[in-house]
Hints:
mainly alpha
Amino acid sequence: MLDRWLRNETFQRQSTFLDVRRVSADTSAEDQELEEWLGHELMRNYFDPKKRGPLVDALRSLGIEGLADHVARTNFPDDPKVVTGEFGEALASAVFRIQRRYTVPILKLRYKHRRNAPAQAADLVAFRYPPLHPSSLFPK
């Protein structure tokens, strides 16, 4: 779905380590299919409420009540502005995983400091193993 929706327009090599791609959205993509796919990508970045229970229970059984309570109450935002920003992080993660074939080991939205504040620091951590030569990461 991602490959049908986002189209590469231009590619420009800035340096050995920085390439810039301009992409555009293909407006002919089916709205319902696209919405379902985007919704799935966003939800995979959060703890699924159905799967959060065992984690909360495990933390409580280890005597870490404070952390268990924190995980139980802080995952889903309640501010619409935050949802928009978090959507961008989920989409960037999907681009790296699906189009660039990177592994994204930490989904930042799962580990929040507060309900409306994702974990601080880097927005995205990704790697590919075995690593490729830099010139092959961004083919023209």
